[in-house]
Amino acid sequence: MDKSFDPRSIEQALYRQWEDSGCFAVRPEGAQPYCILLPPPNVTGTLHMGHAFQHTLMDALIRHRRMRGDAVLWQGGTDHAGIATQMVVERRLAAEGRSRHDLGREAFLDAVWDWKEHSGGTISSQMRRLGNSIDWSRERFTMDDGLSNAVTEVFVRLHEEGLIYRGKRLVNWDPVLHTAVSDLEVLSEEEQGSLWHFRYPLADASGHLVVATTRPETMLGDTAVAVHPEDERYRHLIGLEVELPLTGRRIPVIADDYVDPEFGTGCVKITPAHDFNDHAVGTRHALPLINIFTIDARLNENAPQAYQGLDRFEARKRVVADLDALGLVEKIDDHRLMVPRGDRSGAVIEPFLTDQWYVKVGPLAEPAIRAVEDGRIRFVPENWSKTYFEWMRNIEDWCISRQIWWGHRIPAWYDADGNIFVGRSEAEVRERHGLGPEVALTQDEDVLDTWFSSALWPFSTLGWPEETPELERFYPTSVLVTGFDIIFFWVARMIMMGLKFMDDVPFREIYITGLIRDAEGQKMSKSKGNVLDPIDLIDGITLDALLEKRTSGLMQPQMAKKIAKATRGQFPEGIPAFGTDALRFTLSALATTGRDIKFDLGRIEGYRNFCNKLWNAARFVLMNVDGQDTGLGPELRQPTLADRWIMDRLRTTAAAVTAHYDAYRFDLAAQALYDFTWHDYCDWYLELTKPVLNGDADAAVKRATRHTLVQVLEALLRLLHPMMPFITETIWNDVKPAAGVDARFLVERPWVGTDDFPADAAAGTELEWVKGFITGLRRIRAEMDIAPGKPLPVLVQNWTEDDQELYLRHRTLLDFLAKPESVTWLNPGEEAPESALSLVGEMRLLIPLAGLIDKDAEIARLTKEIGKLDRNLEQSESRLANESFVARAPAEVVAKERTRVAEMRAARSDLGAQLERIRAL
């Protein structure tokens, strides 16, 4: 093995070997099926930290189950991402001075397909970099012929049952893209605005009402003023009319519980065509719907002529100015409000009344609710079922049409009279309705919402509507790993569609992950400029290259500088190459159930060190077994206490890790593996083997130790493999000859079972005594600043015959690792000089300090350390005493400072006690 671990030299070549060898294909045929669906990322996209997090957890489950002998399918693929992909290609055309309308629909779609074939595979390549063990031979795309057929089939069947209809309703409208968008494609953030208070004169000239609004331009579409029915200030006005300024129209005063009497004046303008809440009020009161906007949010012919053609924000200025000229502006207040913007265009989203296609979801939602209630589907953590129920029990019909060209075109045709015909093709429509060639038919221009096709993902990817072997074998799938933000948009719709068309749930369990946040707890987003690219973490990136990313909006300059500051100067030149395994293990270790993750570069550096620790341990093993007898033959093996102990610890660890995987506690599995690898195997067992391997132990003892070294390492690599596939596969390839293993790849080896290694609780108890003796002396050395190699005289008090027997039995180990100069067993009542003390159970280890240390030098050293600690403690306590700091600083920063103070106080107490002991000598 190389002296150091270099992930860049192994990862990509190793992945190609796995893929070319068919390691990720479904096998064996007769085994228990286990299937995970990859939430299909956008074909336009690149891997972000959310992908890296969820994909790591999915791949760990997949590799784990594959090693447990299940017939595993990780179904992968990408989504056509209608709006996002169309925008990419339109921007490319715009750079050439052309638009999609210049090309026409067919030529534009050809251009999109061409872009997809040549540039759309970036994210699939990046998934390979992450180690995703997807069966790439089965990779699907939501606009593949098979999936497109499934989409058409579902649309037609739902329409035939009356569950798809066309109607005029209010939608989220993007005035730049000229299409309806889903709620998930709307980003609402607080912005500074104004709250205008206008006077609406009563029609009988007896006074006026004052209404408050954040959108003055929409008042031109008002059809009522609403007050609360119990509001004594306005009850006498209910049923009267007001003059709507600037329009020449009269509108009624109505009563509705929607109005909050405590907000503003308690009078609310109602604009049913341009506000979702107002639309609900308008429906209850049968108010007219007046749409005053065009598709690009300009004032249309329903507005007064003076405003027609104006952009909505220009119209806002004109309306306010004209009302002010009429003396109808009561006042204007500064006001913070949530502004909805399209996530692709950045334009302010407009509630807009248009004809769209809808799914009537009520009949589909009821069985989907029951499936979770009766336990056919289980949420992990369970509390997310409450969110699911809340959404599903208040569900509204689903707008599935989009006014773009890229996507699944709606299978509906219109004749010259506007009659609508739905079918799988125009030929089927003509045959079913008896329409001859003389009847001109035009297909609907709209395409389906991307979420419509992805709702069919669990069964369309397996071949539905054909009755395929894969569909029979892998549906329902085993578990869905996804984020809470798409429980409604994707998860719920997959459940509804699966129950409708497969008569069964699409998955048995839903593991909901948290969000990846930055080290300060902020959500990673382009707008915040705090996005970390997982490929940068894997390969490394210079600070200059990070700064260049500001042009893409992914990382602002201050974020790049923040990286160096946040890691206390560890990475002043940028991000080093941590490698895939360190990233994956970090994400696994942080995956506490249901909680958001603060991603700190300090953690990934720590797990890169863990990779190095594992690599160096393997080098130690191989150097000590190369060309030696590793106990694979019939010759006698005589295990030491350490051999028996480490095998018992491995057995316990394997059982714990298996249980944690079954419970989706990736964090606990990672912690158990880390503790065993670093502390049990590396820090203790490897050290305990050195006296055997380097001493004059019997051949059977050495043979057993070499056998245990190799067998435990080989099993440990199997346990670590699902989370750290590259380094474990590389080491295992060197270890397998010594372990007597005949297999192509570690990924094909079986999981470690509890029966693979013997239980030996007695060995654990005995070795804990040995460890206690060694660590007791080591602790005294550390506390008293005594050189590690200096032999120490040891006095033993309060000992038993068992203690003495254990010491004599393991004296070789204790002499090698604890380095006592002598061991004196004091009789009961026998006094000892001033000594440092350590306990091993009830037995007391005493180290006389006289002559071991320079008393004056040690007092000076401790006094200096205490002084430095006192200064830092004073600064931190002063900071926490500052009310302004506590009130304004992020909660995480304050909590961190309080933890630091507690740690410094504890350290101050320990150093003070140590100083008093030295002075007493």
Automatic annotation (TrEMBL):
InterPro entries: aa-tRNA-synth_I_CS, aa-tRNA-synth_Ia, Anticodon_Ia_Val, M/V/L/I-tRNA-synth_anticd-bd, Rossmann-like_a/b/a_fold, tRNA-bd_arm, tRNAsynth_Ia_anticodon-bd, Val-tRNA_synth_C_sf
CDD domains assigned to the protein according to its UniProt record, in alphabetical order: Anticodon_Ia_Val, ValRS_core
UniProt catalytic activity: tRNA(Val) + L-valine + ATP = L-valyl-tRNA(Val) + AMP + diphosphate
Recorded family membership: Belongs to the class-I aminoacyl-tRNA synthetase family. ValS type 1 subfamily.
Keywords: Aminoacyl-tRNA synthetase, ATP-binding, Coiled coil, Cytoplasm, Ligase, Nucleotide-binding, Protein biosynthesis
Main location: cytoplasm
Source species of the chain: Thioalkalivibrio paradoxus ARh 1
Subunit structure: Monomer.
Domain Aminoacyl-tRNA synthetase class Ia per the UniProt entry, residue ranges: 14-600
A Pfam family per the record: Anticodon_1
Protein name: Valine--tRNA ligase
Annotated Gene Ontology cellular component terms: cytosol
Motif 'HIGH' region: where in chain: 41-51
GO MF assignments: aminoacyl-tRNA deacylase activity; ATP binding; valine-tRNA ligase activity
Annotated domain remarks: The C-terminal coiled-coil domain is crucial for aminoacylation activity. ValRS has two distinct active sites: one for aminoacylation and one for editing. The misactivated threonine is translocated from the active site to the editing site.
This enzyme's EC code(s): 6.1.1.9
Gene3D superfamilies in the record: HUPs (3.40.50.620), Isoleucyl-tRNA Synthetase, Domain 1 (1.10.730.10), Valyl-tRNA synthetase, C-terminal domain (1.10.287.380), Valyl/Leucyl/Isoleucyl-tRNA synthetase, editing domain (3.90.740.10)
Binding site for ATP: K526
